[in-house]
Amino acid sequence: MKYFKKKAPKLILIGFTIISFSAFFSFIKKENKMIHISRASEQRIINQGKFIIRLLPLGKNIPNHKDNGIYQIGRIDHATLEGGTFVPMHLHHNDEILSYLRKGKMVHKDSNGNVETVHSKHLMMMNSGSGFYHEEGVPEDGETVEMLQIFMRPRADELPPKVQFTNLPESHGINKWRLIGGNEKSDAPLKINTDVLLYDATIEKGKVALPALSGKSGYLYVFDGNIVIPGKDIKLSKGDAIFFEDEELSVETDNKADLVFFILDKYSAVSKNGLYAH
């Protein structure tokens, strides 16, 4: 008994020290998990001459994520298409695809009979569901298109296919976030059959808060320009992105930056049968 009486305080102290260090490193680990940065240099480039695709790394550099995408996002292509580029008719199935153009014009045709010219004020959302075909091209004398092709995972398989178009009063929102696409219950002009909210903004100068996550996850992509994340010592340039949770962040620039921002729900079910489902 004497042995245990003498040693008990020391054991308690050692135990407390171990717990303290464990809690400390757990806190550090948690803090490091909050924000994940991906750089433009990590993008995989597919060069087809007049048609160049830069594949964003998305979930590939998030530790223990085990998914090439991030929750509702399956894949994002940052693409440029020069005049005369033509992508022939092809099938999409169980994907939600938003064509986000910042420069140039692209002609879209599909198996539903739509023929539309898509540009920065006239965006397109393809809810492919049970399947439809489309083609797209840039006129021979057209300006080079710069765009994001955003592939998202629907909440269920084999939904009725449809294509949506929306006319926007401006090509971008100045120093404010503009809701472009969102789930069926949102006020977004383009409806997406999954739990996502998609915003864009052009920050001309100064500081702007990101939309509140309300317990969800955020993914910010720098389409063009340079920004900093105040208070985090993070600088982002064109092609860079951050994924984060449990943070309320702002962005700041002393010049001009075009940004795209997603709010994602990791607890919401998504299809595993689309083209970029894993």
Rounded mean pLDDT score: 89
CATH topology annotation: Jelly Rolls
Residue stretches low in confidence (pLDDT < 50, at least 5 long) are 1-33
Query: Could you give the order of strands across the largest sheet?
Result: 1-20-17-22-15-13-14
Cα(first) to Cα(last) distance is: 60 Å
Please identify the structural class as seen in this structure. Answer: mainly beta
CATH architecture: Sandwich
CATH class: Mainly Beta
Q: Per DSSP, what share of the residues sits in E-state strands of 2 or more residues? A: 35-45%
Total domains, how many? 1
What is the tally of helical segments?
A: 1
Query: How many extended strands?
Result: 22
What helical percentage do the residues reach? 10-25%
Find the CATH superfamily.
Jelly Rolls
Helix-strand sequence: HEEEEEEEEEEEEEEEEEEEEEE
Q: Which sheet architecture does the biggest sheet show?
A: 7 strands, mixed
State Rg.
23 Å
User: What global shape is seen?
Assistant: globular
